[in-house]
Amino acid sequence: MASRRVTRKWEVFAGRNRFWCDGRLMTAPHPGVFVLTLALICSTCALHFAFDCPFLAARVSPAVPVAGAALFLFTMSALLRTALSDPGIIPRAAAAEAAALEAGAGAGGGGGGGAGAGEAGRPPPRAREVLVRGRPVKLKYCFTCKMFRPPRASHCSLCDNCVDRFDHHCPWVGNCVGKRNYRYFYTFVVSLSFLAVFVFACAVAHLALEARGAGLGAALRASPASALVAAVCFLSVWSVLGLAGFHTYLASTDQTTNEDIKGSFSTRRGVSNPNPYSRGNACANCWHVLCGPLAPSLIDRRGVFTIDVKDELPASFARVLAPAAVRPGAGGLSASRLRLLHDTTMIDAALDLDEPDPPPHLPHAPHAPHAPTAPHAPHAARAAVAAL
Ligand SMILES: [Zn+2]
Ligand SMILES: [Zn+2]
Protein backbone atom coordinates (compact mmCIF):
# COMPACT_ATOMS: atom_id res chain seq x y z
CA MET A 1 0.00 0.00 0.00
CA ALA A 2 1.37 3.39 -0.92
CA SER A 3 2.27 5.50 2.07
CA ARG A 4 0.21 8.65 2.43
CA ARG A 5 1.95 11.89 3.34
CA VAL A 6 0.65 13.28 6.60
CA THR A 7 -0.45 16.89 6.89
CA ARG A 8 0.99 18.70 9.83
CA LYS A 9 -0.93 21.38 11.70
CA TRP A 10 1.43 24.17 10.65
CA GLU A 11 0.43 23.52 7.03
CA VAL A 12 -3.20 24.37 7.79
CA PHE A 13 -2.46 26.99 10.44
CA ALA A 14 -5.15 29.67 10.47
CA GLY A 15 -2.91 32.66 11.26
CA ARG A 16 -0.54 34.46 8.92
CA ASN A 17 2.71 33.20 10.44
CA ARG A 18 5.29 31.61 8.21
CA PHE A 19 6.78 28.25 9.10
CA TRP A 20 10.21 26.91 8.25
CA CYS A 21 12.01 23.57 8.55
CA ASP A 22 8.79 21.54 8.49
CA GLY A 23 7.22 23.64 11.22
CA ARG A 24 10.16 23.62 13.63
CA LEU A 25 10.69 27.35 13.20
CA MET A 26 8.16 30.13 12.74
CA THR A 27 8.23 33.86 12.10
CA ALA A 28 5.81 36.69 11.42
CA PRO A 29 4.39 36.85 7.87
CA HIS A 30 6.89 39.45 6.63
CA PRO A 31 10.28 38.87 8.25
CA GLY A 32 12.08 41.37 5.96
CA VAL A 33 12.99 43.79 8.75
CA PHE A 34 14.26 40.86 10.81
CA VAL A 35 16.66 40.03 7.97
CA LEU A 36 17.75 43.69 8.04
CA THR A 37 18.39 43.40 11.81
CA LEU A 38 20.47 40.30 11.23
CA ALA A 39 22.41 41.97 8.41
CA LEU A 40 23.08 45.10 10.47
CA ILE A 41 24.36 43.23 13.52
CA CYS A 42 26.39 40.71 11.51
CA SER A 43 27.99 43.26 9.17
CA THR A 44 28.93 45.63 12.00
CA CYS A 45 30.39 42.77 14.02
CA ALA A 46 32.19 41.42 10.94
CA LEU A 47 33.96 44.77 10.56
CA HIS A 48 34.73 44.71 14.28
CA PHE A 49 36.25 41.21 14.10
CA ALA A 50 38.10 41.92 10.83
CA PHE A 51 39.68 45.26 11.67
CA ASP A 52 39.46 46.12 15.39
CA CYS A 53 39.97 42.71 16.98
CA PRO A 54 43.35 41.80 15.38
CA PHE A 55 44.76 45.23 16.25
CA LEU A 56 43.46 45.24 19.84
CA ALA A 57 44.43 41.59 20.41
CA ALA A 58 48.01 42.50 19.57
CA ARG A 59 48.13 45.89 21.30
CA VAL A 60 45.79 45.46 24.28
CA SER A 61 44.80 41.90 25.11
CA PRO A 62 43.86 38.65 23.35
CA ALA A 63 40.77 38.64 25.56
CA VAL A 64 39.19 41.39 23.42
CA PRO A 65 38.15 39.14 20.50
CA VAL A 66 37.12 36.39 22.93
CA ALA A 67 34.82 38.73 24.82
CA GLY A 68 33.47 40.13 21.55
CA ALA A 69 32.75 36.66 20.17
CA ALA A 70 31.01 35.56 23.36
CA LEU A 71 28.81 38.66 23.39
CA PHE A 72 28.01 38.29 19.70
CA LEU A 73 27.03 34.62 19.99
CA PHE A 74 24.93 35.26 23.08
CA THR A 75 23.12 38.15 21.40
CA MET A 76 22.48 36.20 18.22
CA SER A 77 21.16 33.16 20.04
CA ALA A 78 18.72 35.34 22.00
CA LEU A 79 17.64 37.07 18.79
CA LEU A 80 17.08 33.80 16.92
CA ARG A 81 15.22 32.27 19.83
CA THR A 82 12.94 35.32 19.98
CA ALA A 83 12.39 35.45 16.25
CA LEU A 84 11.86 31.78 15.45
CA SER A 85 9.78 30.47 18.34
CA ASP A 86 6.11 30.49 19.25
CA PRO A 87 5.46 33.73 21.16
CA GLY A 88 2.48 32.19 22.95
CA ILE A 89 -0.16 31.91 20.27
CA ILE A 90 -3.55 30.83 21.58
CA PRO A 91 -5.18 28.36 19.19
CA ARG A 92 -8.39 29.48 17.61
CA ALA A 93 -11.56 27.77 18.74
CA ALA A 94 -12.33 24.69 16.70
CA ALA A 95 -15.51 24.94 14.65
CA ALA A 96 -17.46 22.76 17.05
CA GLU A 97 -16.18 24.68 20.05
CA ALA A 98 -17.09 28.03 18.48
CA ALA A 99 -20.52 26.70 17.51
CA ALA A 100 -21.09 25.43 21.04
CA LEU A 101 -20.08 28.79 22.46
CA GLU A 102 -22.49 30.58 20.14
CA ALA A 103 -25.25 28.08 20.87
CA GLY A 104 -24.61 28.30 24.58
CA ALA A 105 -24.71 32.06 24.46
CA GLY A 106 -27.96 31.93 22.55
CA ALA A 107 -29.55 29.43 24.88
CA GLY A 108 -28.83 31.62 27.87
CA GLY A 109 -30.18 34.71 26.18
CA GLY A 110 -33.65 34.28 27.57
CA GLY A 111 -32.74 35.40 31.03
CA GLY A 112 -32.39 38.99 32.15
CA GLY A 113 -29.77 41.23 30.60
CA GLY A 114 -28.66 38.49 28.30
CA ALA A 115 -32.02 38.76 26.60
CA GLY A 116 -31.67 38.95 22.90
CA ALA A 117 -28.36 37.17 22.94
CA GLY A 118 -28.41 34.73 20.15
CA GLU A 119 -31.68 36.11 18.81
CA ALA A 120 -31.86 36.94 15.15
CA GLY A 121 -29.81 39.99 14.31
CA ARG A 122 -28.20 40.29 17.73
CA PRO A 123 -24.87 38.80 18.67
CA PRO A 124 -24.45 36.78 21.83
CA PRO A 125 -22.79 38.46 24.84
CA ARG A 126 -19.24 39.54 24.13
CA ALA A 127 -18.19 40.83 27.52
CA ARG A 128 -17.02 38.87 30.49
CA GLU A 129 -15.10 39.66 33.57
CA VAL A 130 -12.86 37.59 35.75
CA LEU A 131 -11.39 38.30 39.13
CA VAL A 132 -7.64 38.24 39.37
CA ARG A 133 -6.54 38.39 42.98
CA GLY A 134 -9.84 40.00 43.78
CA ARG A 135 -9.62 42.61 41.05
CA PRO A 136 -12.01 42.59 38.10
CA VAL A 137 -10.36 42.08 34.71
CA LYS A 138 -12.37 42.24 31.52
CA LEU A 139 -12.19 39.41 29.00
CA LYS A 140 -12.68 40.47 25.41
CA TYR A 141 -14.18 38.25 22.78
CA CYS A 142 -12.01 37.80 19.71
CA PHE A 143 -14.20 37.61 16.63
CA THR A 144 -11.37 36.17 14.56
CA CYS A 145 -10.33 33.43 16.99
CA LYS A 146 -13.92 32.87 18.18
CA MET A 147 -13.07 32.82 21.85
CA PHE A 148 -12.76 34.95 24.94
CA ARG A 149 -9.15 35.96 25.25
CA PRO A 150 -7.40 35.20 28.51
CA PRO A 151 -6.45 38.30 30.49
CA ARG A 152 -3.35 40.03 29.04
CA ALA A 153 -3.81 38.35 25.66
CA SER A 154 -4.32 40.47 22.57
CA HIS A 155 -4.88 39.82 18.90
CA CYS A 156 -1.92 40.74 16.69
CA SER A 157 -3.36 42.15 13.49
CA LEU A 158 -0.16 41.41 11.56
CA CYS A 159 0.14 37.76 12.55
CA ASP A 160 -3.66 37.38 12.89
CA ASN A 161 -3.44 35.44 16.14
CA CYS A 162 -4.27 35.99 19.75
CA VAL A 163 -1.03 35.94 21.75
CA ASP A 164 -0.93 35.24 25.46
CA ARG A 165 0.60 38.02 27.58
CA PHE A 166 0.97 40.02 24.38
CA ASP A 167 3.74 42.58 24.67
CA HIS A 168 4.00 43.97 21.15
CA HIS A 169 4.67 42.93 17.58
CA CYS A 170 8.33 43.63 16.92
CA PRO A 171 9.25 43.92 13.24
CA TRP A 172 12.95 44.08 14.20
CA VAL A 173 12.84 40.54 15.52
CA GLY A 174 10.21 39.48 12.97
CA ASN A 175 7.80 38.06 15.50
CA CYS A 176 5.27 38.89 18.17
CA VAL A 177 6.71 39.24 21.63
CA GLY A 178 4.53 37.43 24.13
CA LYS A 179 4.42 35.06 27.03
CA ARG A 180 6.74 32.43 25.56
CA ASN A 181 9.50 34.57 24.08
CA TYR A 182 9.52 37.71 26.21
CA ARG A 183 12.50 36.49 28.27
CA TYR A 184 14.52 35.91 25.10
CA PHE A 185 13.51 39.30 23.73
CA TYR A 186 14.61 40.96 26.96
CA THR A 187 17.87 39.00 26.92
CA PHE A 188 18.41 40.08 23.31
CA VAL A 189 17.83 43.77 24.03
CA VAL A 190 20.09 43.80 27.09
CA SER A 191 22.88 41.78 25.46
CA LEU A 192 22.65 43.95 22.32
CA SER A 193 23.19 46.99 24.53
CA PHE A 194 26.37 45.45 25.95
CA LEU A 195 27.49 44.38 22.47
CA ALA A 196 26.93 47.85 20.98
CA VAL A 197 28.80 49.55 23.82
CA PHE A 198 31.64 47.01 23.62
CA VAL A 199 32.04 47.27 19.84
CA PHE A 200 31.86 51.07 20.04
CA ALA A 201 34.51 51.16 22.76
CA CYS A 202 36.78 48.88 20.73
CA ALA A 203 36.45 51.02 17.60
CA VAL A 204 37.20 54.20 19.55
CA ALA A 205 40.16 52.54 21.30
CA HIS A 206 41.52 51.41 17.94
CA LEU A 207 41.25 54.92 16.50
CA ALA A 208 42.74 56.47 19.63
CA LEU A 209 45.76 54.15 19.54
CA GLU A 210 46.23 54.76 15.83
CA ALA A 211 45.96 58.51 16.39
CA ARG A 212 48.74 58.62 18.97
CA GLY A 213 51.41 60.83 17.51
CA ALA A 214 49.97 60.64 13.97
CA GLY A 215 46.73 62.55 14.53
CA LEU A 216 43.07 61.68 14.03
CA GLY A 217 43.22 62.17 10.26
CA ALA A 218 45.92 59.55 9.91
CA ALA A 219 44.00 57.20 12.19
CA LEU A 220 40.85 57.55 10.07
CA ARG A 221 42.84 56.85 6.93
CA ALA A 222 44.53 53.87 8.58
CA SER A 223 41.26 52.32 9.75
CA PRO A 224 38.17 53.76 8.07
CA ALA A 225 36.20 50.64 9.05
CA SER A 226 36.63 51.53 12.73
CA ALA A 227 35.17 54.96 12.08
CA LEU A 228 32.19 53.38 10.32
CA VAL A 229 31.65 50.89 13.16
CA ALA A 230 31.89 53.66 15.76
CA ALA A 231 29.35 55.78 13.87
CA VAL A 232 26.85 52.91 13.48
CA CYS A 233 27.15 51.96 17.16
CA PHE A 234 26.93 55.57 18.34
CA LEU A 235 23.72 56.14 16.37
CA SER A 236 22.03 52.92 17.44
CA VAL A 237 23.17 52.45 21.02
CA TRP A 238 20.90 55.13 22.48
CA SER A 239 17.67 53.55 21.29
CA VAL A 240 18.87 50.09 22.34
CA LEU A 241 19.87 51.32 25.80
CA GLY A 242 16.53 53.12 26.14
CA LEU A 243 14.67 49.98 25.15
CA ALA A 244 16.65 47.89 27.63
CA GLY A 245 15.85 50.35 30.40
CA PHE A 246 12.17 50.45 29.47
CA HIS A 247 11.85 46.66 29.45
CA THR A 248 13.73 46.43 32.74
CA TYR A 249 11.08 48.73 34.20
CA LEU A 250 8.30 46.61 32.64
CA ALA A 251 9.78 43.34 33.91
CA SER A 252 10.29 44.75 37.41
CA THR A 253 6.62 45.78 37.55
CA ASP A 254 5.29 42.74 35.62
CA GLN A 255 3.66 44.84 32.92
CA THR A 256 3.61 44.46 29.18
CA THR A 257 4.30 47.19 26.64
CA ASN A 258 0.67 46.84 25.57
CA GLU A 259 -0.58 47.45 29.12
CA ASP A 260 1.84 50.32 29.66
CA ILE A 261 0.75 52.08 26.46
CA LYS A 262 -2.92 51.61 27.28
CA GLY A 263 -2.36 52.71 30.88
CA SER A 264 -4.12 49.59 32.12
CA PHE A 265 -2.89 50.03 35.67
CA SER A 266 -2.66 53.80 35.88
CA THR A 267 -4.68 55.90 38.29
CA ARG A 268 -7.86 57.21 36.71
CA ARG A 269 -9.99 60.00 38.12
CA GLY A 270 -8.20 59.67 41.42
CA VAL A 271 -8.98 55.96 41.67
CA SER A 272 -5.91 53.78 41.88
CA ASN A 273 -5.86 50.69 39.71
CA PRO A 274 -2.98 48.55 40.95
CA ASN A 275 -1.54 45.82 38.80
CA PRO A 276 -3.05 42.53 40.01
CA TYR A 277 -0.24 40.51 38.41
CA SER A 278 2.55 42.22 40.33
CA ARG A 279 4.13 40.11 43.04
CA GLY A 280 4.85 43.11 45.18
CA ASN A 281 8.52 43.71 44.60
CA ALA A 282 10.80 44.18 41.62
CA CYS A 283 12.97 41.11 42.24
CA ALA A 284 10.01 38.74 42.48
CA ASN A 285 8.48 40.24 39.33
CA CYS A 286 11.73 39.97 37.35
CA TRP A 287 12.21 36.42 38.51
CA HIS A 288 8.70 35.42 37.52
CA VAL A 289 8.77 37.19 34.14
CA LEU A 290 12.29 36.24 33.10
CA CYS A 291 13.05 33.00 34.95
CA GLY A 292 9.68 31.44 35.77
CA PRO A 293 8.55 28.18 34.18
CA LEU A 294 8.24 28.47 30.40
CA ALA A 295 4.68 27.86 29.25
CA PRO A 296 4.33 25.07 26.68
CA SER A 297 3.39 25.93 23.12
CA LEU A 298 -0.34 25.47 22.59
CA ILE A 299 -0.42 25.31 18.81
CA ASP A 300 1.29 21.91 18.41
CA ARG A 301 2.50 23.01 14.99
CA ARG A 302 4.32 19.74 14.26
CA GLY A 303 1.35 17.61 15.23
CA VAL A 304 -0.49 15.62 12.59
CA PHE A 305 -3.59 17.36 11.34
CA THR A 306 -6.83 15.43 11.43
CA ILE A 307 -10.26 16.59 10.43
CA ASP A 308 -11.81 14.65 13.30
CA VAL A 309 -12.68 17.59 15.47
CA LYS A 310 -13.05 15.41 18.55
CA ASP A 311 -9.31 14.97 18.47
CA GLU A 312 -8.96 18.72 18.80
CA LEU A 313 -11.06 18.98 21.92
CA PRO A 314 -10.34 17.95 25.47
CA ALA A 315 -12.52 15.18 26.83
CA SER A 316 -14.18 17.50 29.30
CA PHE A 317 -15.45 19.58 26.42
CA ALA A 318 -17.70 16.73 25.32
CA ARG A 319 -20.13 17.85 28.00
CA VAL A 320 -20.52 21.14 26.19
CA LEU A 321 -21.12 19.41 22.89
CA ALA A 322 -23.93 17.33 24.40
CA PRO A 323 -26.54 19.92 25.50
CA ALA A 324 -28.53 17.47 27.61
CA ALA A 325 -25.51 16.72 29.69
CA VAL A 326 -24.31 20.27 30.07
CA ARG A 327 -23.53 21.01 33.63
CA PRO A 328 -24.20 24.51 34.86
CA GLY A 329 -21.43 26.81 33.89
CA ALA A 330 -19.90 24.84 31.12
CA GLY A 331 -21.54 26.92 28.45
CA GLY A 332 -20.34 30.46 29.04
CA LEU A 333 -16.68 29.71 28.62
CA SER A 334 -15.75 26.41 27.09
CA ALA A 335 -14.03 23.90 29.28
CA SER A 336 -10.82 24.21 27.29
CA ARG A 337 -10.83 28.00 27.63
CA LEU A 338 -11.58 27.77 31.31
CA ARG A 339 -8.67 25.44 31.74
CA LEU A 340 -6.45 27.75 29.72
CA LEU A 341 -7.51 30.72 31.82
CA HIS A 342 -6.87 28.78 34.96
CA ASP A 343 -3.49 27.53 33.82
CA THR A 344 -2.15 30.79 32.51
CA THR A 345 -3.42 33.36 34.93
CA MET A 346 -4.34 33.83 38.54
CA ILE A 347 -8.06 34.01 38.07
CA ASP A 348 -10.24 33.68 41.10
CA ALA A 349 -13.58 33.56 39.31
CA ALA A 350 -15.37 34.44 36.10
CA LEU A 351 -18.31 36.80 35.89
CA ASP A 352 -20.68 37.47 33.04
CA LEU A 353 -20.96 41.18 32.36
CA ASP A 354 -24.24 40.67 30.56
CA GLU A 355 -25.85 39.48 33.73
CA PRO A 356 -28.68 41.87 34.76
CA ASP A 357 -27.45 42.56 38.30
CA PRO A 358 -23.89 41.34 38.38
CA PRO A 359 -22.50 40.93 41.86
CA PRO A 360 -18.97 42.01 40.97
CA HIS A 361 -17.10 40.75 44.00
CA LEU A 362 -18.83 37.56 44.98
CA PRO A 363 -16.71 34.86 43.41
CA HIS A 364 -17.97 32.09 45.65
CA ALA A 365 -21.56 33.20 46.07
CA PRO A 366 -24.13 30.40 45.88
CA HIS A 367 -26.31 30.25 42.80
CA ALA A 368 -29.11 32.75 42.85
CA PRO A 369 -32.56 31.14 42.87
CA HIS A 370 -33.40 32.64 39.48
CA ALA A 371 -30.17 31.53 37.86
CA PRO A 372 -31.02 29.69 34.67
CA THR A 373 -29.70 26.19 34.22
CA ALA A 374 -29.19 26.65 30.51
CA PRO A 375 -25.67 26.29 29.15
CA HIS A 376 -25.14 30.04 29.36
CA ALA A 377 -25.89 30.28 33.06
CA PRO A 378 -23.91 33.35 34.12
CA HIS A 379 -23.47 32.38 37.76
CA ALA A 380 -22.39 28.96 36.75
CA ALA A 381 -19.31 30.29 34.99
CA ARG A 382 -18.04 31.35 38.37
CA ALA A 383 -18.63 27.94 39.82
CA ALA A 384 -16.92 26.31 36.88
CA VAL A 385 -13.79 28.39 37.29
CA ALA A 386 -13.78 27.99 41.04
CA ALA A 387 -14.05 24.25 40.59
CA LEU A 388 -11.00 24.07 38.35
ZN1 LIG B 1 -7.71 36.54 18.19
ZN1 LIG C 1 2.51 39.64 15.49
UniProtKB/TrEMBL annotation:
Residues 139-262 form the Palmitoyltransferase DHHC domain. One of its GO terms (molecular function) is protein-cysteine S-palmitoyltransferase activity. The keyword Acyltransferase applies. InterPro entries: Palmitoyltrfase_DHHC, PFA4/ZDH16/20/ERF2-like. One of its GO terms (biological process) is protein targeting to membrane. It catalyses: L-cysteinyl-[protein] + hexadecanoyl-CoA = S-hexadecanoyl-L-cysteinyl-[protein] + CoA. GO terms for cellular component: endoplasmic reticulum; Golgi apparatus. Keywords: Acyltransferase, Lipoprotein, Membrane, Palmitate, Transferase, Transmembrane, Transmembrane helix. It is found in: Endomembrane system. PANTHER family: PALMITOYLTRANSFERASE APP, ZINC FINGER DHHC DOMAIN CONTAINING PROTEIN. The DHHC domain is required for palmitoyltransferase activity. This is Palmitoyltransferase. It comes from Diatraea saccharalis.
